[in-house]
Write a structure and sequence with these properties.
Mean pLDDT: 94
CATH class: Alpha Beta
Low-confidence stretches: none
Radius of gyration: 15 Å
CATH topology: Alpha-D-Glucose-1,6-Bisphosphate, Chain A, domain 4
Strand content: 35-45%
Number of strands: 7
Number of domains: 1
Largest sheet: 7 strands, antiparallel
CATH superfamily: START domain
Helix content: 25-40%
């Protein structure tokens, strides 16, 4: 079974500024809760992502247990969207779309995460009890950080 988490946020900036921020792998740590212990472990990470880029990192999403993740940037359209997909990590499926849409009131940033937890039926129970809440908590944190960066003047 798979699930989707969708989030939207209107940011008071221009598309170039927002794209520069979200397309830099190093900035992911800034929008991830500190308790998750997010650390990029790739030897060299360029300042801007590109299609085919692989990024390895360690993260502790549950109970402080470190997990290795390998993410591939599978699609990039400059200043419009990019997609990251888990290649190694805790999920059976992880597909995350980051979409930017200019509006008259700023830039609408949409995240669409399609994911499938491991362990079949047990994973479905874990999603209902823990995983979905944890993902919402992570995206709530991101929302707050981006609000402070772009909407509080």
């Amino acid at each position: 079974m798979f699930y989707q988490l969708k989030r939207e946020q209107l940011l008071q900036t221009d598309v170039e500024t927002l794209w520069d921020f979200i397309s830099s792998p190093e900035n992911l740590k800034k929008i991830t809760p500190k308790y998750m212990g997010f650390d990029i472990t790739s030897d060299e990470v360029p300042g801007k992502m590109y299609q085919g880029m692989m990024i390895s990192y360690k993260v502790s999403p549950f109970l402080g247990i470190k997990s290795d993740w390998l993410t591939e940037i599978t699609h990039v359209v400059d200043k419009q969207y990019f997609v990251d997909e888990q290649r190694v990590g805790p999920y059976v499926l992880w597909h995350h779309q980051h979409i930017l849409t200019p509006t008259t009131n700023g830039i609408l940033m949409r995240d669409i995460v399609t994911y499938a937890p491991p362990f079949g039926f047990l994973g479905s129970i874990a999603n209902a009890l823990i995983i979905k809440k944890k993902l919402i908590e992570i995206f709530d944190y991101r929302y707050e950080v981006l609000e402070k960066m772009f909407n509080e003047k």
